[in-house]
Amino acid sequence: MMVGIVGKPNAGKSTFFSAATLIQVPIANYPFTTIKPNRGIAYVTAKCPCKEFGIRDEPANSICDEGTRLIPVELVDCAGLVPDAWKGRGLGNRFLDEIRKADAMIHVVDASGSTDLEGRPCPPGSHDPVEDVDFLRREMDMWLFQIVKRDWREISKGDDARSALEAKLSGLSIERSHIERAISGSGLDSKRLAEWTDDELLGFLSRLREASKPTLIAANKMDLPGAEGGLESIKRRGLKAVPCCAEAELALRRSAQRGITNYKPWRASFEILDGAKLSEEQRRALALINDRVLRRWGGTGVQEAINSAFFDLLGAIAVYPVEDAERLSDHRGRVLPDAYLVRRGTTARDLAYRIHTELGKGFLYAIDARTGRRLGGDHPLKDGDVISVISAEGRR
Fold first, then answer.
1. At a CB cut-off of 8 Å and minimum separation 6, what does 174 contact?
2. For the whole model, what pTM was predicted?
3. Element spanning 194, H or E
4. Which end of the chain is flanked by fewer CB atoms within 10 Å, N or C?
5. Is 327 helix (H, G, I), strand (E, B) or coil?
6. Helices of type H across the chain
7. Number of structural domains in the chain
8. CATH of the domain at 385
9. 364 domain residue, yes or no
10. What are residue 64's DSSP bridge partners?
11. Which domain holds residue 355?
């Protein structure tokens, strides 16, 4: 699973990405600072079973911090899109193509309304951030439209139009289930695809975009004047949005990196460490972050947005495979070594294949480490499950 960070120029996308990954990327107050898409690793946070079992774990593919498991995920930061990017305007299709691999998107929006649709500075509150949401949706819809339209006659007249459409869109992380959901939701006659008008096709593709690229809005710059009004405007449209201040998150993470503060992204507070040498300007900046962001909004919103994108939009759950169900360890004796992020509905056999192909091929049954109960291959896993797979190829 991969999530794309998208939006117009100068909305704070690269700051959000840097705060989430601590990767240095160009950040500036002008459009098209991001010339090439940046990829990086961030973390979702989940409750680690170590506290429940009263054990000390030894994570290998993730991190445990006092009972909070940090599981790595991939983010891609794409350059800002401007109106008519689908026609090639600005940096255009080059960056829309980067979005094709994303399973979901975090749309970073300037909630303060201090940048116009092109990303140029304007008086705070003078631009409605809902316009940014609408324009990005249209860019995505028109991008899909131009991909499908050129071959629509052949696709729609074939004996199996759904399979032809699936093949056409296979490189965009669009699955058959997304197509079926979009057709069902459109209310169009799926047996007469060749008769669809351009408007009907565009309406179908809009639903397909919603199904295949679900989007969370990160209402950014919540520390600036006009931001609360912008957030309310977004919410009035019934859109899911997380109040966010990426600049504050980046400042806090860097301060923790430099040994100035004790800050954890999943907590809404920080402490200045004893002996930390701060200038008066730095102290004022941290005080402002505390008052205007952490106390006001309960956090910077960056970690919440990442968690929501994976757990809510993509339906991810965290599972913990072990080889020894009694000791909760792997073959090296490491306790709760791995945390896997999988989609809700993943079965015990699916997990076996995820760990190793041969383990899946030889699957016999799985064991729920909490109850000791045997689980069949079709048993759906739950969030937080600790599972041992028993296979003809050996247990895991």
1. 166, 208, 212
2. 0.90
3. none
4. N
5. coil
6. 13-21, 50-53, 92-99, 129-149, 152-157, 161-168, 176-186, 198-212, 227-236, 246-257, 280-289, 295-297, 302-308, 348-355, 357-361
7. 1
8. 3.10.20.30
9. yes
10. 69
11. 316-391
Q: Which two tokens stand for residue 276?
A: 């930390």
| 99 within domain boundaries | no
The pLDDT assigned to 324 comes to: 96
Query: What is residue 95's predicted lDDT score, i.e. its pLDDT?
Result: 58
User: Which residues make beta-bridge pairs with 242?
Assistant: 218
- If we measure between CA atoms, which residue out of 42, 20, 58, 74 comes closest to residue 320? 58
Q: Which residues of the chain have pLDDT under 50?
A: 24-37
Measure the CA–CA gap between 204 and 161, rounded to whole angstroms.
14
N residues, the chain: 396
Give per-residue pLDDT as tens, 99-153. Answer: 888 999 999 999 999 999 989 999 999 999 999 999 999 988 998 998 899 899 8
Residue 189 lies in a domain: no
Q: Which long-range contacts (CB under 8 A, 24 or more apart) does 90-99 make?
A: 90/31, 90/32, 91/32, 91/35, 93/143, 95/37, 96/139, 96/140, 96/143, 98/4, 98/37, 99/4, 99/6, 99/140, 99/213
| Cα 273 to the center of its chain, rounded Å | 32
Query: CA 11, CA 333: separation in Å to the nearest integer?
Result: 47
181 HSE (CA, 13 A, CB side): 14
Specify the DSSP class assigned to residue 347.
B
pLDDT at 26: 38
Q: What is the pLDDT of residue 22?
A: 84
* Tokens describing residue 185: 């939701």
What is the model's pLDDT at position 27? 35
Q: Are 306 and 73 in contact (CB under 8 A)?
A: yes
Instruction: For residue 105, tell me if it sits in a domain.
Output: no
